[in-house]
UniProtKB/TrEMBL annotation, chain A:
This is Phosphate transport system permease protein PstA. It is a multi-pass membrane protein. Pfam families: BPD_transp_1. GO terms for molecular function: phosphate transmembrane transporter activity. PROSITE patterns: ABC_TM1.
TrEMBL record, chain B:
Part of the binding-protein-dependent transport system for phosphate; probably responsible for the translocation of the substrate across the membrane. It is a multi-pass membrane protein. PANTHER family: PHOSPHATE TRANSPORT SYSTEM PERMEASE (PTHR42727:SF1), PHOSPHATE TRANSPORT SYSTEM PERMEASE PROTEIN (PTHR42727). This is Phosphate transport system permease protein. Keywords: Cell membrane, Membrane, Phosphate transport, Transmembrane, Transmembrane helix, Transport. Gene3D superfamilies: MetI-like (1.10.3720.10). The keyword Aminoacyl-tRNA synthetase does not apply. GO terms for molecular function: phosphate transmembrane transporter activity. It comes from Peribacillus muralis.
Length: 292, 299
């Protein structure tokens, strides 16, 4: 067996250590790239949009004149959209998660549903738009309404909610269920009164994250045909409407320089809304996170 | 003595609920079936009017011309250009970030940086599109004056930035799950941290890393708003990244936000393009699942 040549190792060692240090620096720089881009993005949008962001901007409807353009219809429209997406996607998502975690037997149907959900999560959002256009807008004749758009978005964010709810339900320890069964509770009583309350923080966190995704999505709504320019508020879920990202898209694609500032102001409102929702999600997670 | 009275009603609820929940679970399956049927039916109508041979072999995508031409290759080329540029940005940066976070960073640093990367992943794509058009493109034009206002380079880079957190976070998961004992074996043989990472940890985690890259690229192929806003609307076959392009997704947006009347050939063409897009991303998602399942190293 050949022995290690100590002088050879000693000669090489400084170089090897130097390469290690250099690469560590490079890895760190790469990590910084993401953070720097984020900082530039926030700084740019803030400085561009802050001048336009005032009370009028929140209260005015969209306008062809940049100085009069406001975001009222889009802001209210986004809230309308949430009012459809939140109940529909939460009900379907949590229901599916309960079925998969508590009732489903290990057979090919269950496996198929699970594989299908993970594939659905990877389908581009614009394809959901094509589904919404064909099924909700045309076949069910819901037209370009809050309901049609809301159902499309609900299906889009469904996989996120299902996966989050599954994890939350799985994290509820067996002991709790067994204690409930031991008291004579039925399966559904156990789920409704023991498992779900314990899983609610996780479910809500996932739900809010899914909702904030729905609020930021543009592509499926463009395909569904939500108008880019609207100067009235919806009265029912069957009325047409517009949302923040659509309004921003509209302003972004206008040639006049001033509309860039209007778009930036709209983006600030959208980002504030998203950060607000994400903070609530984090708050729920931290506050109600019980350890068993 | 407690149960006599309520027991009948209870039994009914206990029987109905699972069926109800199963129906809810079935909706996700119906969604997939709905997507596939929608795309197939409408694509068939399209191929009734435009030959499938033309669709795959013609080299021009000119649906609005007086003599329209429907060859999807230019849209695919545009999509691949964006995906390639995005990969050049996201793979090295994402992988280096993953290595830094899992191998070099302290627990505290990791806990600060990871949430910030999550913010990057949660930014709406329309915001990225605006950023590409109003910041990245002007900066790039300072560097390369020949760059067009709409081009492939700027949205490509921004799509890369968008998918980078996903590649980083999934790769980091793969790296972290490599057991400590393997690293310590390498250290005991006298390897430096870098040598351990490159020669031992990376190969052990390679399936997870490749899967994360494939998933990221699939996301890049399906990305819509960034390329619609900053990429332009000129389908072309050349490999030039400085001129305006069009991707599959951007074409669907262009037609949807314009006035392609219901029932026209152009209307049906968005389904044919959507079908192609769906097949592309489905294949890549299945590939990623296959890789991470088939080649996962068990310890």
């Amino acid at each position: 067996m050949k022995l290690i040549n100590k002088s050879h190792v000693a000669k090489k060692m400084p170089v090897r250590l130097a390469v290690n240090t250099i690469c560590k620096g490079l890895f760190f720089l790469a990590t910084l790239i993401g953070l720097i881009v984020l900082a530039i993005l926030f700084y740019r949008i803030f400085t561009q949009g802050i001048g336009h962001l005032n009370g009028d901007f929140l209260q005015n409807f969209a306008s062809r004149k940049p100085e009069e353009a406001g975001i009222k219809a889009a802001l209210i429209g986004s809230i309308w959209l949430m009012a459809v997406v939140a109940p529909v996607s939460l009900m379907l998502g949590v229901g599916t998660a309960i079925y998969l975690e508590e009732y489903a037997r290990k057979n090919w149907i269950t496996t198929f549903i699970k594989v299908n959900i993970s594939n659905l999560a990877g389908v581009p959002s614009i394809v959901f738009g094509l589904l919404g256009l064909t099924v909700f807008v045309r076949a069910l004749a819901l037209d370009r309404s809050v309901l049609a758009a809301g159902l499309t978005m609900s299906l889009l964010v469904l996989p996120v909610i299902i996966v989050a709810s599954q994890e939350a339900i799985r994290a509820v320890p067996r002991d709790l269920r067994e204690a409930s069964f031991g008291m004579g509770a039925t399966k559904w009583q156990t789920i409704r009164k023991v498992v779900l309350p314990a899983a609610i923080p996780g479910i809500l966190t996932g739900g809010i994250l899914a909702l904030s995704r729905a609020i930021g999505e543009t592509a499926p709504l463009v395909v569904v045909g939500i108008p880019l320019f609207i100067a009235f508020l919806p009265q029912t879920v069957l009325d047409t409407f517009t949302v923040l990202p659509m309004q921003i898209y509209n302003w972004t694609s206008r040639p006049q320089e001033e509309f860039q500032q209007v778009a930036a102001a709209g983006i600030i409102v959208l980002l504030i809304l998203l950060i607000f929702m994400n903070s609530i999600a984090v708050l729920i997670r931290n506050k109600f996170q019980k350890r068993y | 003595m407690i149960l006599e009275k309520k027991s009948k009603k209870k039994v009914d609820v206990e029987k109905i609920i699972p069926k109800l929940l199963f129906l809810m679970a079935a909706i996700s399956v119906f969604t997939t079936i709905g997507i596939i049927l929608t795309l197939i039916f409408e694509t068939f109508i399209f191929f009734d009017r435009v030959s499938i041979v033309e669709f795959f072999t013609a080299s021009k995508w000119l649906p609005f011309a007086s003599v329209p031409s429907f060859g999807i290759m230019p849209l695919i080329v545009g999509t691949l250009k964006i995906t390639l540029i995005a990969a050049v940005v996201a793979v090295p940066v994402g992988l280096a970030t993953a290595i830094f976070l899992s191998e070099y960073a302290s627990e505290k640093t990791r806990r600060i940086i990871k949430p910030i990367l999550e913010v990057l992943a949660g930014i709406p794509t329309i915001v990225y599109g605006f950023f590409a058009l109003t910041f990245v493109t002007p900066v790039l034009r300072e560097l390369f004056p020949s760059l067009d206002m709409f081009n492939a380079l700027s949205p490509g880079i921004v799509v890369g930035i968008m998918i980078m957190p996903m590649v980083a976070s999934l790769s980091e998961d793969a790296l972290v799950s490599v057991p400590k004992s393997i690293r310590e074996g390498a250290y005991a043989l006298g390897a430096t941290k870098l040598e351990t990472t490159i020669k031992v940890v990376l190969p052990a985690a390679i399936s997870g890393i490749v899967a994360s890259i494939v998933l990221g690229l699939s996301r890049a192929i399906g990305e819509t708003m960034i390329v619609s806003v900053a990429g332009g609307s000129t389908p072309s076959m050349n490999m030039d990244v400085t001129s305006s392009i069009q991707t599959m997704t951007a074409y669907i947006v262009q037609v949807s936000s314009g006035d392609a009347g219901y029932g026209t050939t152009i209307y049906y063409s968005i389904y044919a393009v959507g079908m192609t897009l769906f097949v592309f991303t489905l294949v890549m998602n299945l590939l990623a699942q296959f890789i991470s399942r088939r080649f996962r190293e068990e310890y």
